[in-house]
Amino acid sequence: MLTARIEALGLGKGDRLIDIGCGEGRHCHGVQLLTQAQAIGVDLDEASLALARERGAQLEGIGPIAEFQAADASALPFADASFDAAICSEVLEHVPDMAALVAEAARVLKPGAIYAVTVPRAWPERICWTLASGPGGYSDQPGGHIRIVDPSELRNMAEQAGFEFISSHHAHALHTPYWWLKTAFWSHRDDHPLVRAWHRLLVWDMMKAPMLTRGLERALDPVLGKSLAMYFRRVA
Length: 236
Known about the structure:
Number of helices: 8
Largest sheet: 7 strands, mixed
Shape: globular
Strand content: 15-25%
CATH architecture: 3-Layer(aba) Sandwich
Number of strands: 7
Structural class: alpha/beta
Order of helices and strands: EHEHEEHEHHEHHHE
Number of domains: 1
CATH class: Alpha Beta
């Protein structure tokens, strides 16, 4: 399930992409499947990195094998201007200092490189916070969301770090009702029948990619999309 559009990154053979906060490596694997670029994913969660490596190895022979390593997104162990593109997907809502991550991405990117950032869309996210509020709620989970990201604040932050805004879009409209159900029945979470039923729908949609649900999601994304993706270019 890709939130950032790999084709928007302009990756060619031999290019290097860094996925900052890669989790289980879905975008790195997308780069491996769809391009001839080298993807490098960084994260602090060793269990997620181990799974990312395992899944990447299963794609051997399809593009350069993605690499994964443990690293702090606010202090990346790479030289200045060493990457041709970067993805930071569903990360900034988790960290105390967004500006530090954006500035570090600017440091490791070459002039002209594309920086793709995705965050939860503000208004669907706000409903989740409201439905499961209070201690132990949606916004009170270990490693969970600590803020609702304001798009204008993120854009200003990126521009101050040395990026220029290119474009944006929304994604994953079918996931929005799932999270509303999950937060509405927060005490049961994944055990509630409605939550389980919608999860089965999402898995079926991702595995089968039927024209009906793919077309429905594309139509609903501008209105109901769970994630906001923004694209920036690193200026000299």
